[in-house]
Amino acid sequence: MIKVTLDVRDVSKRFGDGETAVLAVRGVSLAVEPSEVVLIMGPSGSGKTTLLSMMGALLRPTEGSIHLDGTAISELSEGRLPDIRLRQFGFIFQDFNLLSALSALENVTLVAELAGLKRRAARDKATALLTELGLGERLDFLPEKLSGGEKQRVAIARALINDPALILADEPTANLDSKIGHEIMRLLRRIAKEQGRSVVIVSHDERIRDIADRVLWLEDGAFKDMVTMVTDPVCAMAVERERAVSAQRDGETYWFCSRGCRDEFLGTRGRGGEAE
Amino acid sequence: MNGTWLLARRNLARNRVRLLVSVGGVALALSLTLALDAIYAGVANQLTAYIDRAGADVWVSQAGVRNLHMVASWLPDSVTEEVRAVDGVAEATPILYSTDTIAAGDERAVAYVIGLPPGAGMGGPWKVSEGAARPGRAEVIVDRGFARKAGVGLGDPVTILGGEARIVGLSEGTASLVNSVAFVSFEDFRSMRGDASVVSYVLVRIASDASPEGIAAEIERRVAGVTAQSSTAFSVEERRLVTDMSADVIAIMNVVGFVVGLAVVALTVYVATLARRREFGALKALGARSRFLYGVVLVQASLSVALAFLVGLAFTGLLALVVPMTGVDLELAISAASLVKVGLFAAVIAGLAAILPIRQIAGLDPAVVFRRGAAL
Q1: Nearest C-alpha of chain B: how many angstroms from A170?
Q2: Is the pTM of this model over 0.80?
Q3: For residue A130, with 0-12 CB atoms within 10 Å meaning exposed, 13-18 middle and 19 or more buried, which class applies?
Q4: A53 and B287 in contact by Cβ < 8 A?
Q5: Residues B227-262: tens digit of each pLDDT
């Protein structure tokens, strides 16, 4: 049985009352597995950010429940939520939201200290993390001295410092150029796969579809289409499973970007396989 | 706690102009209170200078009279001999005292006028920069500051107690912001006041093994119609009179200083918090508890006020050094009590100034960090 990191069950969110009430999210369900990268896309005002806020325990659903590793976080008292946010979630924001008065290292250290780590240990851990993310030479730089990509990497280090089960990213590439944006997304994917963390990304950016395991389309507060991304074993291209050609081999299903790749796969490695 | 201090310090240092305005404004407000306290303490010091430096251990006055300023004390001549007869009294010197105006040319100034008997062992000027230390008939010793302002010197005439006297000595340390001390002969004082056989005070020097309080009590027991106090007690009474007279002014200026200081710190901390509202929101979203954020604001306000207190103290200390050099007869005495009072003021200002920004943070929705372009 696959362990579920985050389980969103039939969640709705209504703002306001009576005739002026707005239903921002309506009956959304979603289960996020460990190591999975889920991308939620949709037009402006579709409820993406509201849904992300509820997943991050920043907003309570009007209906439904949200479970994190079996705990109904939507039912927890306000007093318990800061600890959940600090230890279970890592947040990455579009505007980075780094503390402008603190250096890159201090930005990350502070969050570790908030979780109870001693100053020296927090500093050591933050240094190691930032160095691993390629910021070893930028530890003492203020955010204003960092490029957009560097700021976002500091934000990622800050999100990872308390070893969260789930990373929630809000438009993480919006303020970055295409190349850096893609680098950041590949980094998030690597973190998910190597460290077993789940990543949920809300974005308008079509260019990052290929790093997701699953792409969800949110419109008018509800999921319209669910797209699962798979990797072609021949050319390594990310393709939507629902639109891909597939083949079975030894009881396992493989998806391909084209018939050519499928044929090549079946011709060289998949003898005995069955094309769909 | 480390994180709180770090963030508060960095937030303060980040905007130097705002820090300067905040610290400068509060420092000025606290200086107002400190300087006023120091001025009144200085004036009290100056007003009690004659009592403290006259050389007496015990002051004997008319019954019920407990100080010099704004009172009249009249004792029969015979009291001096009665006091001398008390065990433990080593020396007794009668003086005449009145508050009068001393005039030289166009310069007129209020003065404590002291009539000194010939060869008085006490009650005369304690530091004479020029001329005689004891006045003879038709002679006067005036404060050097008064003489400088009036443009007179040794040998020049002044009008005092309704008559004329020639300056024979210039004393130092005998002037305050409000008056000075002038010394004339006992005979001149008495003749100018109708030759009444009275004295104002009897100054007593006690035997080396006696206590001033014990001798004062003994004098009151043995001599009828007098009040006897140790020099220290007499000085305290004089100082209390000055303090009582200035209490309302000090209270009003304290309130002004307090309100100005509070307004400056509250406004700057509020603006600083407002400017970092998104960052505080991000911290809340990341899991920082409200008490951590309140702590940051409180430490910011406290650090601003603590810095302002030090700057205000340094500024007042500088004033205390510089003012006497300008020739003004003003002493600024910074007392420990004043420091404690202004320090407590500052602490209360810091606490109150943090309330508004803390309320702002308390109502901050952490989800606000996701709202792009929203007015935060």
Answers
A1: 7
A2: no
A3: buried
A4: no
A5: 999 999 999 998 888 778 777 777 787 788 778 877
